Amino acid sequence: MGTDDFGLIRAELQPAHPITIQWAMGSAKPSAVMWTTHAVPLIVADSVVQLLRAHGFTGWALYEVSVHDKQGQPVPGYHGLAVTGRCGNIDWAQGIEVPRIFPAGIFPVWKGLFFDPDSWDGSDFFIPGERVGYVLVVEEVKKAFERAKIKNVSFTPLDQFERNWRI
């Protein structure tokens, strides 16, 4: 992509020209939600945009993308999703240590993703103040995606989020 990926997802960058996306993985046809090999940018189909608008969800914006299929042919109807909602930084010192079995043995993981609730702007889509790629959503967004059977996206409750490092 050659751009500031965090700037795109965090709505800090509005590209002057459509970002070119080469769709290369998965089924023969792109799904309604596409992830990129850069991990952070999120590409969504018109159907997802219609869902977000129909529910009046807040905290998101769009930027232009030009999606091409595996053969290099244009695939219309996709947009880059940027998150305008914010909360404060993640409090990495919090978390509940629990043991997990891995192929190399039993090791601790820390459960929970915490931020100061007073730092949240109340948006339905929001992202921490620090430059991390976590897109956080309210329960209503999750339910709307599930009812619409939107594929290629998963939701993890913040109290179930696991990380294998401790600060």
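That was protein one. Protein two is written in the same sequence-then-structure order:
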Amino acid sequence: MLFSNINGTKKKKIVLIPHMNPDGDALGSSLALLFYFRKLNHDVDLISPTEYSDFFRWLPGSNDIIILSEKTELLIKKKIVDSDYIFFIDFNNLSRIKNLKKFLFCSKAKKILIDHHPYPFYFDFMFSDITVAATSILVFRFISNMKNLDKIDKQIATCLYVGIITDTGFFRFPSVTSETHFIVGKLIEKGIDIENIYNHIHEKYNVNRLKILSKALKKLQVIDKYRTAYTSINSSDINFYSYQKGDTEGIITYGLKIKNIVFSVFFFEENERSPIRISFRSKGNFDVNIFARKHFGGGGHKNAAGGLLKTSLSESIEYFLNIIPNYYKNLMFSI
């Protein structure tokens, strides 16, 4: 029924919502759907609950994203209330869209989830598969199920490719399968510029970003007993180095580059009024999704997750250090 209604000739009002602080997969999959639904002649809006990193402003269609703010709040409310369909993309809980969720209760729109995170919140229609490497893969499947793969052009393919490479670490993670490479092959056939995409994603480091990284590496602490590394950036650090959103991306990965380390943690204080954002990455069997859900009100995937604490940075780190001894066996025998 959903496919036939959206594939039909009657124009629909569609709203696309990624999670707050959208990453490459959230933006890539959302922008791909924006272009796709426009090709079906629907009235489509992509609404983000927060700003996104300058790192992704080169993406096709990024200028069309409506960011929730005091100036746009009334416009966004009207678009959500008047919509026929609302797509929730790359997240599994309404807490991930901050103040946008208050408008949903005023809308009679059908609500559709497209996501690959575990324990998804229930919606009217669900395209959920926790085994896939990226939500962008599910968007490709969604378009395929509608028998519209011919609608995928270079713009859509570029967005989906960015989503896949960012959520797989350039095909390094265990979630990568033969289907991942099959879909990427189909996207390449659309004429995407792989070299240009790689340069945008992998090599665009401004000086301030490198200085923030240097600061984080100087603070890096290693706990050999628990095969764990952690570091942090506080508001003073980013104010001193003219921080731009996205400048802390990738810091979390450096801990896992250390020999014998299986658990890396990054604490981020964007400003003194905001909760502390914590990122978790792991190797092998140590499940950071469970760890984040149990102790930090967050979640994610087995080897990549995040959470929040409404405490100071020092209190957040102390809380973590008090917890970690309970996972001695899990960390020591993680492979």
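The chain has two domains: 2-202, 207-332. Keep this in mind for the problem set.
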